[in-house]
Amino acid sequence: MRTLWTFASAVVLISGLVCEANAQGGRGGGPAGPPQPVPPEVAIQRPTAAEVAQMNEALTRMINADASAAKPLLDKYRTLTTVQVPRDNSAIRPVPRNAARHDSFVEIAKKGDIDLLLLGDSITDLWQRSTETYATYFGKYKVANFAISGDTTQGVLWGLQNGEGTGFQPKAIMLMIGTNNSGGNTGPEIAEGVGAIVLELRKDFPNAKILLLAIFPRNAPTSNARRVNAEASAIYSKLADNQRIFYMDIGQNFLSPDGTISTEIMADGLHPTAKGYVVWGEAVKDKIAELMK
């Protein structure tokens, strides 16, 4: 078990800035890879160019034939009535992670002997700095934490495809990723990114059970990031089959009755404090124990 050190609020606040600064890709840089396959449960409908053309031709005919009082408006805003092909989804294009951290994970993976794998961004990464809570909830397992602060779905994808997903076969995996995508991706796009990771995990670790967590609430109740994260989680919750993939939404555990987040739970409205990690640990400990059997 690696040495645990004191969890400092300053580290959390600095990490929050790092997360926001790196919200659009893995910190390792480099070009994005090709789009990865996603499960049908989370796939965004993408019509072909021929289908788009056919639909737009039909819409044009309907507008031209319209004789209602709305005809001038339909003509004026004709460009708004055209069907558009969904934009390219950056959340499913693998991007290199932080090189030094990635290399260290690959070395750990090569040694094997991992029963529980933790994947995510800084929210999961900082588990290891939360005083005694990391040992309390994971100390009895052979655990590896392959989370990196500032990471996104595309970074986790890249890591798994470049050595972090080989050399061992864990019994269980706890995954939460996507909050750093919320500044540039929509909820459906993030859900596709999480779905692509789940497909990769099922390929790399066919016998593992996956605990898929809803993205934690963040910031104010009305913030766009919280809304996007909630939308993404609701979509990818459909991936749960309760055989190999299990979904849990423990977000309410971090919220006050009015929907706000206490600084005692998340000092910066994003990263759990030591108390927040206890809340998390208590919420998942029984499920993890069940999946580890």
What this model shows, in words?
It is a single chain. The chain has helices at 9-21, 49-65, 71-76, 99-111, 122-125, 133-138, 153-164, 187-204, 224-236, 274-291; strands at 116-120, 143-145, 172-176, 209-213, 245-248. With 293 residues, it is α/β, with parallel strands linked by helices. The chain has two domains: 37-86; 90-291, Rossmann fold. The protein has a five-stranded parallel β-sheet, with helices on both faces. Strand 4, helix 9 and strand 5 (245-248) form a beta-alpha-beta unit. The chain starts with 8 loop residues before the first helix and ends with a helix.
The total beta strand count reads 5
Radius of gyration from the alpha-carbon trace, in angstroms: 21 Å
- Main β-sheet description: 5 strands, parallel
Number of domains: 2
Write down the CATH topology of the largest domain.
Answer: Rossmann fold
Structural class: alpha/beta
Structure at a glance:
This protein has 293 residues and is α/β, with parallel strands linked by helices. 41% of the residues lie in helices and 8% in strands. The protein folds into two domains: 37-86; 90-291, Rossmann fold (3-Layer(aba) Sandwich), CATH 3.40.50.1110.
Furnish the topology, listing elements before pairings.
Elements: H1 9-21, H2 49-65, H3 71-76, H4 99-111, E1 116-120, H5 122-125, H6 133-138, E2 143-145, H7 153-164, E3 172-176, H8 187-204, E4 209-213, H9 224-236, E5 245-248, H10 274-291
Parallel strand pairs: 1-2, 1-3, 3-4, 4-5
Helix pairs in contact: 4-7, 7-8, 8-9
